[in-house]
Sequence to fold (249 residues):
Amino acid sequence: MTLVALTAIGVGGATIIGVLIGFLFQKIPHKFNDIVLSFAAGIMLAAAIFGLIIPSLEEGTVWITLAGIICGAIFLNFADRLTPHLHHITGIDQEMHSDKQSGLNKIMLFVMAIAIHNLPEGIAAGVGFGTDNIANAITVAVGIALQNIPEGMVIVSPLIMAGVPKTRVFLIASFTGVIEIAGTFIGYGAVSVATAILPFALAFAGGTMIYVVSDEMIPETHSHGYERQATYALLIGFMTMILMDWYIG
Fold:
């Protein structure tokens, strides 16, 4: 349980680290952001496969795994209907100049989208500790934490430019990390109480992570003219997780 608590704090704290970096570099170049976010996407993709989906297959049947993956994706699809996609934040400066309040509303919806996505990501981190393979759980948690750093960074600049006080910006952005901490304990608690749902829960968490990578992260990193750099960064992130899984596992 102590390891789960430390993981929850680490996963949620990674967002706060990203927020603090965002305060230092309030205007992050698109090229740098796209490369970092793509690296994180590769990390998450590998973590979903090696840390969640493969263990799900080992714990249950292929049909349970497939059902869990699609249910995880559908869950986030319905959540996305309530909030804008990450790539809709592009060009928000122009919208704010014409209507600052409307721009702020869009930014808050963007932050809400991140918070909604962070809940299943936290659950993914917690579910992993329901297996006997702690190395896989750590792999997933590291992947999510690395993805949270650039995520925290991109929240800061739009809020500050919209005129939100820095203290409130920090609290709003940090809240998205707190959601992930709660999700970690929810995921761990669910599989601890009912281990029978573990294969489905692992696949469900993996499906949510793959959905976020495909629907949010890749489109965002390919929308500013740095597609080639972003692609190689994703591959490097994926290979980094293979090395981690090889040596930690």
Notes: Residues 2-19+43-248 form one domain. Residues 131 and 161 are 44 Å apart (CA to CA). The chain has one domain: 2-19+43-248. Residues 85-98 have pLDDT under 50 and may be disordered.
